[in-house]
Design a protein that fits this description.
This protein has a 7-stranded parallel β-sheet, sandwiched between helices. It has a 3-stranded mixed β-sheet with strand order 9-11-13. Helix 1 links the parallel strand 1 and strand 2. The chain is about 40% helix and about 20% strand. It is an alpha/beta fold and about 375 residues long. The chain is globular and about 65 Å long. The chain has one domain: NAD(P)-binding Rossmann-like Domain (Rossmann fold, 3-Layer(aba) Sandwich). It has 12 helices and 14 strands. It binds nicotinamide-adenine-dinucleotide (NAD) and thymidine-5'-diphosphate.
Length: about 375
């Protein structure tokens, strides 16, 4: 089957993995990567597929309503996978307006364009044969923070059982499920929560065929080195201090990015309209523990004595409003669509560290900002 799909934010970390998966797996689809190329967007993330005949890059802001609407018409699209966003909590604390602009107004603009375009191709609104989908990618951070609790007499992490029946280690007795009330704390998560509400409103008000997913922290290749794992890998390599916020006790639930991309593929094709699915790996880690695993892995792969760089750990002032614990229950996705993470965490982290160590040129470009200049030069002539 032929399909024309816009993927927004395809030059970013997760978006580039989704674009790569779709371009390689579906040669009959035309994949249009719509990305503004902010500091976080990098076309070098897609070097291996940029010349494929079923791939097209369009530099555009999701807030550009007219441009986006025209692109939908020109490309006769029948699906949107929306990842474009400002994504870093620390930046949102410094500059919340940019987050409201892109994540809220940008998503609203995209929804409005999609609604008008979809109504123009499907005047009966939602023909049973229609495959049209507006798929919005969101985060577990919209649910707020979970507490660190444990059954009496048992020290965390303790083994518990998800509603799917799967056993896993946890730092608390509660988990994020799809029916939980939204309680975002950071400007980033507040803006993402707001965009999720608009997506739901466009389904409930206009019947737009939407689906939303909320995923836990991703890790893997091509992540911008302002986020914990790539930042620390690079700092360890160069023996620079590792700024651990607070006591390093906060817990995050980590998922390998390619497993997220596989889930997005499955849900885009088989997810039920108007549903929300949580995506996560039942893989909770305290920051300080994950940092030690990263240090040991980098040291081992660089041939340094194991733990040689533990003294780089530097405790710094905590992030304002730092959420204590995130933990996703992805049982619904497993039960209804059969998705499970494919990688054990140890394997995922080894692959990730190896990738960053083998791709120092990518890291140097990104950290030097040369790649931004490259885009300015390239696009100033058009
Ligand atoms: P990222 O910051 O690496 O990439 C964001 C991309 O969006 C960049 O390519 C950037 O150029 C583009 N972009 C930003 N503003 C734009 C605009 N106005 N118009 C068009 N393009 C624009 O982000 P990521 O980590 O890949 O996250 C992608 C999505 O997944 C986001 O919506 C994020 O909220 C969500 N998410 C991320 C994680 C995670 O751990 N990284 C977890 C769950 C959900
Ligand atoms: P981050 O990668 O920014 O993701 P998020 O805030 O979306 O969870 O941070 C992951 C965790 O690591 C979070 O608890 C904050 C902490 N952290 C540090 O301790 N030091 C750092 O330099 C960074 C970037 C994050």
């Amino acid at each position: 089957m032929k399909r024309n799909i816009i993927i927004t934010g395809g030059a970013g970390f997760i978006g580039s993995h989704v674009v790569r998966l779709f371009v390689n797996k579906y040669p009959d689809y035309k994949i249009i990567n719509l990305d503004k190329l902010t500091y976080a967007g990098n076309l070098a993330n897609l070097k291996d597929i940029e010349n494929k005949p079923n791939y097209k890059f369009v530099r555009m802001d999701i807030c550009d309503f007219d441009g986006v609407y025209k692109l939908m018409q020109d490309e006769q699209i029948d699906g949107i996978i929306h990842l474009a966003a400002e994504s870093h909590v620390d930046r949102s604390i410094k500059d919340p307006f940019t987050f409201a602009q892109t994540n809220v107004m940008g998503t609203l603009s995209l929804l409005q364009a999609a609604k008008l375009y979809w109504q123009s191709i499907d005047p009966d609104f939602c023909l049973p044969t229609s495959v049209f989908r507006f798929y919005h990618i969101s985060t577990d951070e919209v649910y707020g923070a979970l507490e660190m609790t444990h059954p009496e007499g048992i020290e965390p992490p303790f083994t518990t059982k998800a509603s799917s029946g799967k056993h896993h280690l946890a730092y608390g007795e509660k988990f994020f499920t799809e029916d939980l009330k939204y309680q975002p704390h950071s400007p980033y998560s507040a803006a993402k929560a707001s965009s999720d509400h608009f997506v739901r409103a466009f389904h409930d008000t206009y019947g737009l065929p939407t689906v939303v997913t909320n995923c836990s922290n991703n890790y893997g290749p091509y992540q911008f080195p302002e986020k914990l794992i790539p930042l620390f890998i690079n700092n360890i390599r160069h023996r620079k201090p590792l700024p651990v916020y607070g006591k390093g006790e906060n817990v995050r639930d980590w998922l390998y990015v390619e497993d997220h991309a596989r889930a997005i593929d499955l849900i885009f094709h088989e997810g039920k309209i108007a549903e929300t699915y949580n995506i996560g790996g039942f893989n909770e880690w305290k920051n300080i523990d994950i940092i030690k695993v990263v240090i040991n892995t980098v040291d081992r792969l660089l041939g340094r004595p194991e733990g040689a760089d533990l003294d780089l750990i530097t405790y710094v002032t905590d992030r304002a409003g730092h959420d204590m614990r995130y933990a996703i229950d992805s049982s619904k996705l497993q039960r209804e669509l059969g998705w499970e993470p494919s990688l054990q965490f140890e394997e995922g982290i080894e692959r990730t560290v190896r990738w960053y160590l083998d791709n120092q040129e990518w890291m140097d470009n990104v950290t030097s900002g040369d790649y931004l200049k490259y885009y300015e030069d390239m696009y100033s002539h058009r």
